[in-house]
Amino acid sequence: MKNTIGVYGLGVMGANLAKNMLHNGERVAIFNYTRDLTDAFMDGYSHPEVSPYFELESFIDSLEKPRKIFIMVTAGPIVDSVIQSLVPLLDPGDIIMDGGNSDFHNSNRRYQQLEEQGIHFISVGVSGGAEGALHGPALMPSGNPNAYQQVAPILEKIAAKVDGKPCCTYIGPEGSGHYVKMVHNGIEYADMQLITEAYLFLRKILGLTVQEIATVFQSWDETELKSYLMEITTEILTKVDEETGKPMVDVILDKAGQKGTGKWTSQDALDRGVPSSILTESVFARYLSSLKEERIYAEKHLNGPKFETGALDKEAWIQFVKKALYMGKICAYAQGFYQYKSASSQKGWELDLGEIALIFRGGCIIRADFLNDISDAYRENPEVTNLLLTPFFMDKANQFESSLRKIVIKGFENGLSLPCFSAALSFYDGYRSSESGANLIQAQRDYFGAHMYERIDQEGTFHTEW
Ligand code: 6PG
Q1: Rounded to 5 degrees, what angle do the CA atoms 213, 420, 370 make?
Q2: Predicted confidence band at 297 (pLDDT cuts at 50, 70, 90)?
Q3: I want to staple 334 with a disulfide (CB 3.0 to 4.6 A). Which of 125, 213, 383, 387 is the partner?
Q4: Does residue 274 have a pLDDT over 90?
């Protein structure tokens, strides 16, 4: 009996996806460029339907046609080398899926190149980390819709389920699946930074202990803020370092790493001309955090207010922080989904934003109850440009904007850096202003560069001899 799918790349994600496929009844051929990971896979695991291969030819020969190969290797040039090694062994109609965090520009190129050779290329955005890969990730596949139909039964089986519905849907043409995954990560960065700013406010301004913050977050996780990130943050804050007895979070160096997908989202927003300022601030916040040594020096030499810890009514201010966090999230998701909308119309991808929100409800890192509301908002208002203009979120924003404002003002008064909270507020206030001040920018541009401007009362473009 031939294998139903081949998994190429047996790092943690690839190995777990292969196991997930096996648990869902597939006959899985596994292959890794170096045999150590294949051996490691087989050492710790036994399943009647797994077949390890140590030569590419026999791996490919073992697959039923059209062959379906899921590659899970480090994003970048390695994906190209793997594809190059596979193509001579494949027949027209065979399907390669790339599950890595690949740059969607590369996925678009690979899609075109492979289609020309009759091979189908499906970009599969995969979210949920190692656990998700094993028990059910969110999957964002794109490419040729007919080819997708051939792999849909496998992908939908292995995906997370919410209300019986798989967190996997056909996203759109070419590399749009990797695009959707990339912006998912941009939103993820913003969400993580917003939670971190809420934590900092509670700790530095309200004077709560780490354990008290864990309790507050746990209670928030039973409200509209319920999300995977809230849940794991609660667990993280509860964890104590065995060596020192301190909260684990206090022994971790405050320099944030990143692998690039958040940065790509911001680069894409700049290229596309969309104001994803909160997402971008979350990337900059990671960069600023990495300047640890400079920050230590600067703290001693640059003035600013001292934290007035504990001077406020804790109960009331905890509620303001909670509402500010919710408001910040609304603005961040509004930006991410606006970016989807712009990309979709610029590229002709016809992304279904309601459906994307639905598949994000389970499996992925930003999974949250709140995505039901986003999905409903787009279902009810499919043409709406911005989430903030849908009745549900307009109502929420009108209720919670004042809390976000309070937190930003209080944080700033106390010298607390709140890049995403403040970016959310600036975005919100800018978005709801019919007058932006850009008339002055236009005048300045015309003054020094004769760049011309439009008038509010006449058609055409104008220049003034200033
Ligand atoms: C996911 C995650 C996953 C990963 C990224 C982000 O959706 O499962 O986004 O793709 O954690 O690598 O990591 P960085 O913070 O290192 O960019």
Answers
A1: 70
A2: very high
A3: 387
A4: yes
Average pLDDT, the chain: 97
pLDDT(260) > 80: yes
The whole-angstrom separation of Cα 182 and Cα 269 is 11
Dist. CA 458–CA 6, nearest whole Å: 64
Q: Does any ligand 1 atom lie closer than 6 A to the CB of residue 261?
A: yes
For residues 91 and 74, give the distance between their C-alpha atoms in angstroms, rounded to a whole number.
25
Q: How far is CA 273 from the centre of its chain?
A: 19
Return the active site residues: 181, 188
CA distance 70 to 141: 12
Which CATH architecture group holds 181-431?
A: Orthogonal Bundle (1.10)
Are 328 and 424 within 8 A, CB to CB?
yes
Which residue owns the Cα nearest ligand 1 atom 16?
258
Tokens of 143: 């490419």
Would you say the CB of residue 128 lies under 6 angstroms from ligand 1? yes
Phi then psi for residue 5, to 5 deg, are -155, 150
**To test ligand 1's pocket by mutation, which of 261, 287, 364 has the most ligand atoms within 8 angstroms of CB?**
261
Identify which of 99, 116, 294 has the alpha carbon closest to the alpha carbon of residue 178. Answer: 99
Degrees to nearest 5, angle at CA 372 with 406 and 391 = 60
Instruction: Please give the pLDDT value at position 381.
Output: 94
Full-prediction pTM beyond 0.90? yes
- Locate the ligand 1 atom nearest the alpha carbon of residue 181 and give its number: 7
CATH number of 5-174: 3.40.50.720
Q: What is the pLDDT of residue 308?
A: 80
- Which regions of 83-231 does DSSP assign to beta strands (E)? 95-98, 120-127, 138-142, 161-162, 165-166
* Closest residue CA from atom 14 of ligand 1: 258
pLDDT at 310 over 80: no
Euclidean distance between the first and the last CA atom of the chain, given in angstroms as a whole number: 81
Residues 367, 127: Cα–Cα separation, whole Å: 10
Break the chain into its structural domains and give their ranges. 5-174, 181-431
What's the rounded Cα separation, in Å, for the pair 424 and 406?
13
Q: How far apart are CA 461 and CA 466, in angstroms?
A: 16
Residue 193, amino acid: Q
For the residues 7-18, what does the mean pLDDT come to? Answer: 98
